[in-house]
Intraflagellar transport protein 81 homolog
Amino acid sequence: MSDQIKFIVDNLNKEPFRKNYNLITFDSLEPMQLLQVLNDVLAEIDPKQVVDIREEMPEQTAKRMLSLLGILKYKPPGNATDMSTFRQGLVTGSKPVIYPVLHWLLQRTSELKKRAYLARFLIKLEVPSEFLQDETVADTNKQYEELMEAFKTLHKECEQLKTSGFSTAEIRRDISAMEEEKDQLIKRVERLKKRVETVQNHQRMLKIARQLRVEKEREEFLAQQKQEQKNQLFHAVQRLQRVQNQLKIMRHAAADAKPESLMKRLEEEIKFNSYMVTEKFPKELENKKKELHFLQKVVSEPAMGHSDLLELQSKINEINTQINQLIEKKMMRNEPIEGKLSLYRQQASIISRKKEAKAEELQETKEKLASLEREVSVKTNQTRELDGTEILKGDEFKRYVSKLRSKSTVFKKKHQIIAELKAEFGLLQRTEELLKQRHENIQHQLQNTEEKRGISGYSYTQEELERVSALKSEVDEMKGRTLDDMSGMVKKLNSLVSEKKSALAPIIKELRQLRQKCQELTQECEEKKSQYDSCAAGLESNRSKLEQEVRGLREECLQEESRYHYTNCMIKSLEVQLCRATEEMRAYVSADQQGKRRAVRQKLREKQKAVRESHGPNMKQVKMWRDFEQLMECKKQCFLKQQSQTAVGQVTQEGGEDRLVL
């Protein structure tokens, strides 16, 4: 430990740190100061790590340092539990954790600098598969990978050039060749200048050529800017669609979300994930480790010749024969217990294989379901853009159709039952009326007969006596049965009570345990419910934020669209006006008299002259028309008066004219 501290202090006192520590001052540093020293060493390796840790949260500092140490491939000593203590010690600035890290970093600073530099360009950014379905994202990711491969090749070439070491003679020859080419180019430029000077207006032509080159560059820049704006608009539309899809999914999940369904779904996911983590993945990892160990063993062995291969083949054949002999001996023994165990082993292996196959099928089905859900969301968005209506999904449509069918069948059955009940009700009602009528007739006849015989009321008295005697006999029988039943019932109850006590004793014990479990589960349920409430609140806040973003994007899109249409309309109207103005100027300036006559000014003058000439006759015609209108109105009034008053006057026609005679 002392040698380690001495090595750290010696390296920290050298360039580029210059800390001026000794063993005592370095060992007496506080945890915050020790973390700052570690951060300074990491900043020397990676300049991005230049941070004052006093202005940074401890969690962020630990996360940043752990990520860089992971990139530098530092392996803390110990297992997973020691890894958690390593993280805790890195947060608190523990000396047993910081000292080994400093010793490891200072031993290989130059190598780690190179590794940190390469990590900036070679750590691949993982893009989710659902985002790679977008063509723009896929093309960008492909370009990113191509640039990464190009960087690898260039870095290798650079390293080779550094290690190759060109001779100074070759470099001097290259410099002299370049200087000769430079002289030749200067002479050629001078010859071209002399040749151009003989041309007339060469300065003006050079100026025009320079302007042409500037305008071409400006045209390329504007075209590039236009393409960038198109790409930005396309990305904005895609982002809006993604946000709308996310908003719809979150709304659908929030509408269908119930605590029971969420708990059930979480339990299923936990079971599946626990199986994958505890059973499947460890087996796969163990198989991969065995395969890797075998491959490493094969690689470490020297190359084999033909004779070695024949020897190995002979050994394999001998081992196979031994295995067959052992199997035959085992079959000859035919032990029943071993046979049962082998049967159970076979069943267990079959079940485990089925379980693994089902887990793989479930994983594939989940991936297919996710892809199908993405396709369905895209198709629904397309149909909504085309039609504007919400379309039912497959399961929803099937449930809707099945509900309609079940309701129609239930309606038909109920309608038929109601019709049958109505018919039966009418029949029973008619039967009741007939029986009541017959009963009244019989009672009336019986009363008449009793009055004739002088014993009126006999039938009623007889019925009452029979009813009372029947009631008395029934009560006596019930009393006797009740006593016997009560005695037997008491015996049965005693036996049942004893049986139930003996039967309920273990159940009561289990019930106590279940009550305790119920209390634990209710407490866990309350915790989960609080987590669910907090998650729901977070989702609600995210949903409101997304809605605000969507609303802002829609308003911005509408404003840009209205501005675009207004600009197009103004451009078209200005183009029409400009066209008219150019035609008018062309006709007005031209020496052709026919063109001047077709000009708008000449047409307007001719029209003004015609209006002035026809103004007087037209005014007279208007006055005559108004007089005629007054005359017709007078005739109308006279006709109405003639209809209402018969003796006021008489209208006669003479010579095609109407005359009113009073």
